[in-house]
């Protein structure tokens, strides 16, 4: 029986993480656990600003973490629809698949800013249950569509933007585009992969 895999997604706002999540959900024995879905149902009326999101997101991770590990342990792969954009979140995700002795795959969606912004404008034009933050509130909190380039301190770091990375296989994107970089590290079976 193949080991279950934890699929994680990382990328700036509107690169196509939800679309990739939907594609991955069609794989056999795979379930999606989406932060947006759970947050809207559990805390929707209470989400008023970024500080609310941070507080409730932490509570959700604490509650759902053991469920993810249990699913992986019984052989069910999980597409974790939580943004893997910070070292702290990636450390939490690492703890989940390590606790279950599961495989993992991190998708880094490296999409140009112009395309991200166009997708975001299109998304915000659609009706939604969330009220997007105003431009002034995002500017005051330092939220932007730019990719941070500071190297994280965990051993689960994202590759920096570069044309070749021997540790990470560059794949054509799920939609035929060149923007998805996939990092599949199986430490026990493929020790020569090196640091991503």
What is the count of distinct domains?
Answer: 1
Number of E-type strands: 6
List the helices and strands in order: EHEHHEHEHHEE
Q: Report the mean per-residue pLDDT as an integer.
A: 74
Measured between the Cα atoms of the first and last residue, the distance is 27 Å
**SSE class:** alpha/beta
Oligomer state equals single chain
Reading off the top of the CATH hierarchy, the class is best stated as Alpha Beta
CATH level-four homologous superfamily name: P-loop containing nucleotide triphosphate hydrolases
Give the proportion of residues in helices.
Answer: 25-40%
Account of the protein in words:
This protein is of the alpha/beta class and 196 residues long. The chain has a single domain, classed as P-loop containing nucleotide triphosphate hydrolases (Rossmann fold, 3-Layer(aba) Sandwich), CATH 3.40.50.300. It is built from 6 helices and 6 strands. The chain has helices at 17-24, 35-43, 50-73, 87-99, 113-125, 135-140; strands spanning 5-10, 30-34, 77-83, 103-109, 169-170, 180-184. Strands 2-3-1-4-6-5 form a 6-stranded mixed sheet, with helices on both faces.
């Amino acid at each position: 029986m193949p080991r279950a895999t934890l699929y994680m997604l990382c990328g700036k706002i509107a690169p196509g993480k939800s679309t990739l999540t939907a594609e991955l959900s069609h794989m056999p024995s795979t379930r999606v656990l989406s932060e947006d879905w759970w947050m809207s149902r559990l805390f929707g009326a209470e989400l008023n600003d970024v500080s609310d999101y941070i507080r409730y997101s932490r509570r959700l991770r604490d509650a759902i973490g053991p469920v993810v590990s249990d699913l992986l342990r019984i052989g069910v792969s999980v597409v974790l629809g939580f943004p893997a954009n910070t070292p702290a979140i990636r450390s939490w995700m690492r703890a989940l698949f390590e606790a279950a002795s599961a495989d993992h795959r991190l998708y880094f969606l490296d999409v140009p800013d112009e395309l991200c912004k166009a997708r975001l404008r299109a998304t915000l034009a659609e009706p939604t249950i969330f009220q997007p933050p105003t431009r002034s509130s995002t500017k005051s909190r330092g939220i932007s569509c730019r990719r941070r380039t500071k190297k994280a301190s965990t051993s689960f770091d994202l590759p920096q933007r570069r044309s070749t990375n021997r540790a990470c296989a560059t794949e054509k994107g799920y939609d035929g585009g060149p923007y998805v970089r996939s990092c599949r590290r199986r430490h026990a079976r493929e020790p020569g992969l090196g640091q991503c």
